[in-house]
User: Which sequence fits this backbone?
């Protein structure tokens, strides 16, 4: 029982250690759209793109990441914060902030799964989705 509990605790508190330098695919609930999220090797920046190759290129090196982040930042900047079983993604566009907070995350080497999402969209409102969200590692 102790081993199982320790394993569960590690899975539920390890997202911050697992995401740096990796690319994950997020698929919408309806499974009709995908986004790729590449986390910087260090720091709090992310590259978010619909193109898998762009996202994977950003994961190749810190200089490749910096290049893709600079290209993305002409219109939108993205940052993240991972702590315990929570991951927050923040988008700044036209000086307005939107945030998505993924809660109760279980993380493994190949994916992480959030039990719910709380969001606040600039000039559009806020809410919570209580369905499972999966981010699959693609690199």
Assistant:
């Amino acid at each position: 029982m102790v081993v199982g509990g320790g394993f569960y605790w590690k899975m539920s508190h390890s997202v911050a250690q697992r995401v740096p330098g990796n690319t994950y695919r997020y698929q919408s609930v309806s499974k009709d759209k995908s986004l790729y999220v590449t986390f910087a090797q260090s720091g709090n920046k992310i590259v978010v793109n619909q193109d898998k190759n762009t996202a994977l290129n950003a994961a190749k090196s810190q200089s490749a990441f910096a290049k893709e982040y600079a290209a993305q930042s002409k219109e939108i900047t993205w940052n993240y914060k991972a702590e315990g079983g929570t991951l927050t993604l923040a988008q700044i566009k036209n000086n307005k902030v939107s945030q998505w907070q993924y809660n109760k995350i279980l993380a493994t080497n190949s994916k992480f799964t959030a039990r719910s999402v709380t969001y606040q969209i600039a000039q559009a409102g806020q809410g919570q989705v209580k369905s499972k969200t999966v981010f699959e590692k693609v690199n």
In short: The radius of gyration is 15 Å. Residues 2-137 form one domain. The longest strand covers residues 76-83. The CA atoms of residues 47 and 71 lie 10 Å apart.
